[in-house]
Every structure is written in structure tokens, then in C-alpha cells.
Amino acid sequence: MSASLPAFDPADPLGIDDLLSEEDLAVRDTVRRWAADRVLPHIADWYERGELPGIRELARELGGLGALGMSLHGHGCAGASAVQYGLACLELEAADSGIRSLVSVQGSLAMYAIHRFGSEEQREQWLPRMASGEVIGCFGLTEPDHGSDPGNMRTRARREPGGDWVLDGRKMWITNGSVAGVAVVWARTDEGIRGFVVPTDTAGFSAPEIKHKWSLRASVTSELVLDGVRLPADAVLPAVTGLKGPLSCLSHARYGIVWGSMGAARSSFETAVDYARTREQFGRPIGGFQLTQAKLADMAVELHKGVLLAHHLGRRMDAGKLRPEQISFGKLNNVREAIEICRTSRTILGANGISLEYPVMRHATNLESVLTYEGTVEMHQLVLGKALTGIDAFR
Fold it and tell me: 292-307 pLDDT, tens per residue?
């Protein structure tokens, strides 16, 4: 019987690839090759310099791959499955979290908001150019004083006689902000919280870049300043009022993080395995010592459990059955475990683990941001706590 079993594959110990179709594998391999060619040779230098040079060119290339707004349908979007989008996120974050963030914010936040809640005119105006990477988008929700509590945002939109809207306020920690051609900005109105499509060349809009970051350094992060930004009446997203709009966008983006975090974990794990096979101490490779093998085994278990969880959630999303609480489950587990995998990998590499010659510390510091944005650990714990008990403990 054992002779008929497939060989054990250390890269895929659970045989998860058997769950993927030929098209799934083609999407994954295409994105992996692009990242290996266009990101990996340069990412350590970009990270050390705290820059993402050529971001507009990278966006156009990602658009050419169909990776922007990948799971959306129509208006130039690829219409890929949720699993295929997840696989792309995993491969992009295996290169760097900043690259996956570029794609997530573009497709799962800015484009998703316009696609789901926008008018047909807004979709036709923006989505084809965003899908191709011609126009980069950003998503303005978080504020300097209101991160986990967006319901108390201070950014305000008032309606003027004649129908124009005027926006005033600030948004903080906005990926893509300084290079965006369009921003989806959420603001308080007399009707409730509304979303607005804001061309970034509108008078009164500015997006100074945030410097001195020790995480997501190869990513453009900005503040959005809205100082009397005047927009026409049709700039508002017509199909939603209230927090359910931005929160549904965040759920879509969090789903990509469930997959993406496992990419960072995989890169760190594979680095640790390769290092353990070749690094010698006391006359033998350190991979031959029991304590090192215990670390590798534990990392492999958590990594591939996380990929299985992501795959399960992807199938549920494709079937229209994925609930926000289940996305919280995935983000909470996978990002926490990814950080632990990176930290354990660092211990195997010893002092070399802090060097940018290896990706481990870069992934670990990036994941500290991923752990916080689009829902902190505490917020996802409370989402699950409410779902499990029926009691709201947020306040």
C-alpha cells in the first residue's frame, strides 16, 4: 500500500496543492514569477532606503497581470475567484507586505468601494483605469484620533446650496496616499457616514508622505488633508450610508491578509530550513539537532494550518457563505502565527537573522503593521467574543 502513496513533499507536507485547479496553480505561479523577477532582487534595498521607487510602473505591471481588483467582475477587472486572489496575495507578501498592501488597498478597498457602492458613472470613470494600474487609489478611513473607532470620525462633509459637497478633515496611515489619483474618503454628514470619490488633484486635497517608519518601509504611507475640498453632488457613493460601507470594504481586504500573512511566514520558514541545512555548529548542520528540528516542525504545522484555513475561507467566499466573523478568525490566527514563525526563524538564523541579507527581520517588522491595520488583535478578539457569547463587549 505504501508504494502507491505520493512522495512526501517538504514544501507542501499536507498536499494542499491537490485542492487547487490548474487555473489556480497558473495564477499562483504567474504572480510568484513576477515577484521573483521584479521585487525580490530589489526589496532589501528599497526597505533599507524606506522607499518604493517606480511604484507607478509596478502598479501598471500588476494591472497587466490582472492583480488589481482581481476578484471583481466587469469594468476591466479580472473576475478571478476568491481563492485565486488569495493565492496572489500570498505570493506578493512572500516578497514583501508592502507590495501586497499596494494591491490590497487598490483592489479590496478603493476599487471594491466604487464597484459595490458607486454609481455606474463612477465605475466607468475609475475602475478600468484602476484595474490597469493607470490610476492608483487610496482609502481614507483611519484618523489621527480614531483608528479602531471609525464611528467617531471627525472628517465632515457638508452639503452646500446647489448640491456641492465640501469636505474638511484628516486621515492617517493611508497606504498609496501620496501617489494616488483618486481617494475614497469616508466622512460624517447630516445623513450619517458617507463615502466620497475624491480626485486627488482637487483643490484643498493634499497627501504628505509619512516618514520614519520601521515597518512597511517599502510602501507609500501618507496623511490625507482635506481643507475645504469641494466636490460635485455626484461624488458621493450612492448605494450606502453608515459604517456598513467602509466595514464591508475592510472585510474584503482582511480576507487578503489571511492569505498574505502566510506568504511572509512561508518566506521566513523556508529561509530557516535552508539555513539549518547548511549552517554548521559543533561539526554538523544545525538542522540535525533536535531543538532546531522541533522549531522547524512547529513552524511547519502552524504555517500549513494557516494556509488550510485561508483556503477554507476562500472556498466559503466563492460560495457566498463567508461571514465577517470568520474573516476575523482568519486574520487573528494567521497574522499572530506568522509573526511567531518569523521570530522563531530569526532564532535559527542567530545574528544573521537581523541582517537584510535575509528576509526574516523585514517580514517580522512588516507584520507588526499587518497585525494592527484593518483590525487590531483586540478588535478581532471582541468580534469573535461577541459572536460566541452574544454579548457586545466593545464598550
Answer: 999 999 999 999 999 9
